[in-house]
Each structure stands twice: as C-alpha cells, then as structure tokens.
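Review this chain:
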Amino acid sequence: MNDLTLLATTRQAAEILGVHESSIKRWNTSKQLNAQQTSGGHRRFSISEILAFAKKNRLDSPLLFYGSYAERVWSATEELRKKGDYELLTQLVYEWIVDDRTTFVTRLLVHIIRKDYPLEDLIDNLLAEVLYRVGDNYMSGNLAIGDEHRATHSLRDVLIHLKEQLRETGYARPARNRPITILGCGREEEHELGALMARLVLEVQGWTVVYLGLDVPTEEFAKQQAKHEAALVCISMMPPRGERDVHHIFNLLDKMYDRRHPYRLAFGGGAVANIENFKVHGSIPEVRIFKSMKEFSYWIQKIAD
C-alpha cells in the first residue's frame, strides 16, 4: 500500500463524510479541512484527516465505526471498486474472522452489497477465499486447532447475521408464492458454511428455504421435499466425501423419487470441486453440481422464472 492509496478526491471525501462536494471545497477554503494539491491543481485529502475532521465535528461517517481499521477499510473497498481486486479486502476480513470481529465483517459486507456488488461474487471471491486461508493456515501450523474452530464459527456467525441484516434491508426475504427449496448437508457432514452461503443466495433470489442443517439422512431430503412440495433439493458436501458419495445419494433419492412431487436436485461444496463430466440417468428430471455460487445463482434465477 502506498501513500496515494490513502488520498481521496473531493468527491470521495464528500462520500466519506456524507455531504455535498461544495461543503468539502468550502471547508478546505476556510482551512478547516486541509488538502494536498496535485500537479494539475486538484485537491487530494488524507483519509486520516478526513476522519479526524469527522470526529471533531461529530459527522456521521460510516468509516468511524471501524476505529483503527478505518483507513484499511477505505483502501480495500477502493481497490475493489477501481480494479475489482479482492486481495486487500480478503486480508482484512481474514484478520477479523480470526480475531472474532464478526460485527465488523457483517457491517462491511452489507455496505458492499448496498453498492450493488452481487452477493454470489462476494461469496466466491471473498468469503470462500477467507475460508480457504483459514484451512491452509491450520494445515501449515500457523493456526492451532482451537483457532481454526473459532474462525470457522466466526464465519458461521457472520453468515447468520448477514442473513438477518439482508432481510431487514429488503435484500433477502422469503416471498409468498415463490418456489421452495429443501437445503441441508449430507449424512455425517459436520461443516455447514457452504449450505449457509447457499441459503443466503437462495433467499436473495426470492426462494423460500426449508433449512435442514447438518448431518441429514438422505431419505429425509426426499420426505421433506414431498411434505413441502419443494421444487428444488440442494445438498452441500465437503471433503473427504467425493464423487462416489454424490452418486450414492443420487441413486437413493432417485429410487425414492415420486413423479407426483417433481423436483430438481443440486449438489455443491468442496466434495464436488474435482468432479468432471458429471452425468447421471434416472427419474429426477435435472441433476446438477455447482462449483461456484455465481453459477448456482444464475441457475436458480433461471429455473424460478
């Protein structure tokens, strides 16, 4: 990160402080808010000075919520906005997850989503990457098992709180007369982060989700589908499970399939990441595996229309 990363234009300073650009220019002219001059004569404002000004004048800048992290939040979100680069954001969120600063993560995600960044992109490029880093650092010995468990549960808390926040802001709310999906993790599955991410995407797309949680017997997916007349069954699976387990679940559900209660079947999670040329034949009209949340989001929107 260089010094230029922490300099804001007049427009950006106005956005940070929630005021009109004319106010920024007036405060600079009256020397209340200092600025640097570019070779072209344009104003550039230090983020630290903008935040100090906000504190002094009791302006309600969202960045103040993050305390000592405020400048890093601004830099990370600017890198995302200008370049589509998630690296600074990933580093920051990883630190917060490991330190159990879930409120910071949730607040920042809601802010980014309000800027019209698709939820599925944030999951694929940010949250999934943070999860991978937690796992990699645990495997390399940089995180103790207790720290890894804590980080995983912190990310789980973020997903649950984010679901509540998106409902409150109108981004995610189960809608009446919308299709129903049964969602859960396969038998003996102990990791539900992928399923919680899928639940967020489904609800944002307007689906009503019947969430079954962890360690769901395969037969129960079929029973709940029939009970709720669900149009879709989604099953999350993680390693060490793999293609053989996916086919085993499909075969059992296909044997139980009742044409009076038609539905589509989708698999996701790390267990399907290495599956190529996935093909099955049976009574269930469509069976898919998804390796990215973006692909899954596009599909559920298409089949709901």
Remarks:
- Residues 222 and 253 are 6 Å apart (CA to CA).
